[in-house]
Amino acid sequence: MKTYTAHIAVTLRRAILDVQGKAVEHALHSLHMPGLTNVRIGKHIELHVQASDQESASAMIREACDKLLTNPVMEDYTFTLHEGEAA
Amino acid sequence: MKTYTAHIAVTLRRAILDVQGKAVEHALHSLHMPGLTNVRIGKHIELHVQASDQESASAMIREACDKLLTNPVMEDYTFTLHEGEAA
Fold this sequence. Notes:
The structure is a homodimer of 87-residue chains. Chain A is α+β, with helices and mostly antiparallel strands and 87 residues long. Chain A has a single domain (2-83), classed as Phosphoribosylformylglycinamidine synthase subunit PurS (Mth169, Chain: A, 2-Layer Sandwich). Chain A is built from two helices and three strands; from the N terminus they run βαβαβ. In chain A, strands 2-1-3 form a three-stranded antiparallel β-sheet. At the A-B interface, β1, α1, β2 and α2 of A face β1, α1, β2 and α2 of B. β2 of chain A pairs antiparallel with β2 (36-51) of chain B.
């Protein structure tokens, strides 16, 4: 068994209005940072995976995302996986 | 002016107990996924930056993180920056 570290980014689908992102964008502009636009806010999930190889680690991450971590109707996810426990 | 896309990951500092992460980890184990551990949950922020070059784009992201997007006492952030509007 090896340990892998996964970083998962969960984002709202493009077609869905991100009101939290809009609020943050408005706040950035109020703070005189007009160059920052199209803010979208999602979740970042970091976890350790105990698996025999990278492929089965990926499969476990996908299962966790599909079953629990994301709402497949409204959200997309991407993840990166690397061996070891470092961040 | 060029457009850059930034992906920012905001995470709770290691020393701080992540109760949301603990709850998710417990739920994963209840769903028969014991191989997933050390879950930590943070924010993922995606935005476009209008800047003359990569260096000033980075500086704008750091300013936004320090002033608004993160709580420097409790949170750390990392970001990646690439040219263009693609995700």
